[in-house]
């Protein structure tokens, strides 16, 4: 249950709330054309309860240890170097001892969330083969036009300029040599927004200015074997 609560909080912060339903509930998930059955046999058990059972049943020797072989060694990290999941786990570990009902409440609320409906009217939700569009990075379904959705929830108008100081600052800003944003390729930007889900858009935004390697299609078995198959012409060249 503790791990599920961590997933709920981490997915929400990372902008992946649409994945909470599939992460928490049992069922069949389709991935790359394959049906995968997801089950959570310990969904009603807290992490402290599992640790206590392992102590009583002498199962700690079967637990995976770190490289030093000591399961008690914990490497301290700075908060800025921790992931969202690590910070969420630390929070629930502190809360679990005193207020265990908080964890069960988070999991119960997360379990009630349903998978969003794809808004086919806001963007071209289907591809050429008739299947729904998936994110090119994480392959999760794209439910809504991210560009239009962000514009709807974002305040685009500035606060009214009232004081003389604000008017002076506004004029100084307008006099700055700002590059023309109209030169941006809007068509390319629009295609990228339709190809990436909101969660990946948040992750990519945090890595602005850093190189990003897009996923490359893995070769099939036939393509790999074809590289090692010798043809008659190659045999003749080797004999010469």
Automatic annotation (TrEMBL):
<dbReference type="GO" id="GO:0000049">
    <property type="term" value="F:tRNA binding"/>
</dbReference>
<keyword id="KW-0819">tRNA processing</keyword>
<dbReference type="InterPro" id="IPR019407">
    <property type="entry name" value="CTU2"/>
</dbReference>
<protein>
    <submittedName>
        <fullName>Unnamed protein product</fullName>
    </submittedName>
</protein>
<keyword id="KW-0963">Cytoplasm</keyword>
<dbReference type="Pfam" id="PF10288">
    <property type="entry name" value="CTU2"/>
</dbReference>
<dbReference type="InterPro" id="IPR014729">
    <property type="entry name" value="Rossmann-like_a/b/a_fold"/>
</dbReference>
<dbReference type="GO" id="GO:0002143">
    <property type="term" value="P:tRNA wobble position uridine thiolation"/>
</dbReference>
<dbReference type="GO" id="GO:0005829">
    <property type="term" value="C:cytosol"/>
</dbReference>
<dbReference type="GO" id="GO:0016783">
    <property type="term" value="F:sulfurtransferase activity"/>
</dbReference>
């Amino acid at each position: 249950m503790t791990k599920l609560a961590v997933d709920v909080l981490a997915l929400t912060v990372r902008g992946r709330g649409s994945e909470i339903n599939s992460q928490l509930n049992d069922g069949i998930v389709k991935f790359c054309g394959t049906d995968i059955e997801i089950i959570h046999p310990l969904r009603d058990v807290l992490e402290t309860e599992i640790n206590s059972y392992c102590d009583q049943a002498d199962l700690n020797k079967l637990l995976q240890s770190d490289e030093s072989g000591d399961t008690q060694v914990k490497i301290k990290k700075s908060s800025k170097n921790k992931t969202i999941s690590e910070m969420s786990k630390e929070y629930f570990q502190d809360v679990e001892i005193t207020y265990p009902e908080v964890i069960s409440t988070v999991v119960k609320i997360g379990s009630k969330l349903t998978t969003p409906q794809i808004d086919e009217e806001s963007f071209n939700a289907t591809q050429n083969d008739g299947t729904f569009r998936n994110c090119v990075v994480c392959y999760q379904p794209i439910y809504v036009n991210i560009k239009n959705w962000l514009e709807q929830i974002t305040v685009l108008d500035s606060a009214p300029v009232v004081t003389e100081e604000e008017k002076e600052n506004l004029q100084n800003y307008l006099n700055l040599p700002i590059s023309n944003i109209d030169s941006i390729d809007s068509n390319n930007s629009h295609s990228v927004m339709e190809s990436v889900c909101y969660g990946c858009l948040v992750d990519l935004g945090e890595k602005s200015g850093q190189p990003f390697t897009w996923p490359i299609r893995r070769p099939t078995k036939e393509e790999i074997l074809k590289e090692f198959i010798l043809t008659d012409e190659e045999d003749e060249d080797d004999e010469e």
